[in-house]
Amino acid sequence: MFEASKIIHSNSDWITLVLVFIFSVLTLLKVVFKDRLAQVTTVFISKKYFLTYYNKGKSTIFNGFQVSLFTVQLLVISLLLYLVNSHFHFQQIPLDFKSYLHIFFLVGFYFSIHYLIGLLLAFLFNFKDVYSVFVYQKLNYFNNLILWLLPFLILTIYISAYQYLLLNITIYLFIILALLRYSLILKNNKKLIFNNLFYFILYLCTLEIAPLIIILKLTI
């Protein structure tokens, strides 16, 4: 129970620097994209963000706002995976900043390959528009997930007396929000899915189920 607390405490300096960088990026986004950032934090409970920004020349995921939040995603999810591994020991690796960077690049590589394979399939089977909708919604729901998760991650790091409990709460919160994310995507696109059922099943098996099976095989 106390091992994770000791590990986190011994690595608090560089973890603090990572969090400072995350909040620097979020502060910059709040200054430059104030309304957009505020709306993306509510996509789990409101469709206003999608109605405002999709199909208005801002639906691309390659812009300053999306790339900055994607960087925050990678930093936060990598930090969560680092803390989870420090407690559960899925992989026997040194628990230091180099290990965190290793996780960061692996997570970035995974998401990049995930997107590129999906894009290739979309071109091959001519469902680019469908894929574009899914990617845009998945990305922004995940932005919301990360922003909601971040305060719990900070509490886990700095409240030493309850780090074990808070880490478990953070993990369960991540799972619940991830399931909510998928259910909302399915709900929002049920007509689109039923009209393109073959492509959806292909996408689901190739880019959602298969990677999870591979990760489980590598870690268990």
What composes the largest sheet? none
Mean pLDDT across residues: 81
Total separate domains: 1
User: With helices defined by DSSP (H or I, 4 residues minimum), what is the helix count?
Assistant: 10
Secondary-structure element string = HHHHHHHHHH
Distance between the ends:
21 Å
**Strand content range:** under 5%
The share of residues in helices is over 70%
What is the gyration radius calculated from CA atoms? Answer: 18 Å
Total number of strands: 0
Categorize the overall geometry.
globular
By secondary-structure content and strand pairing, the structural class works out as: mainly alpha
Residue windows where pLDDT falls under 50 for at least 5 positions? none
How does this structure look, described?
The chain has helices at residues 3-10, 12-32, 34-40, 48-53, 64-88, 97-124, 128-158, 163-188, 190-195, 197-219. It has 220 residues and is mostly helical. The chain has one domain. Helix 2 (12-32) crosses helix 3 (34-40), helix 5 crosses helix 6 and helix 7 (128-158) packs antiparallel against helix 8. The model has no long low-confidence stretch (mean pLDDT 81).
Short descriptors:
single chain; 220 residues; mainly alpha
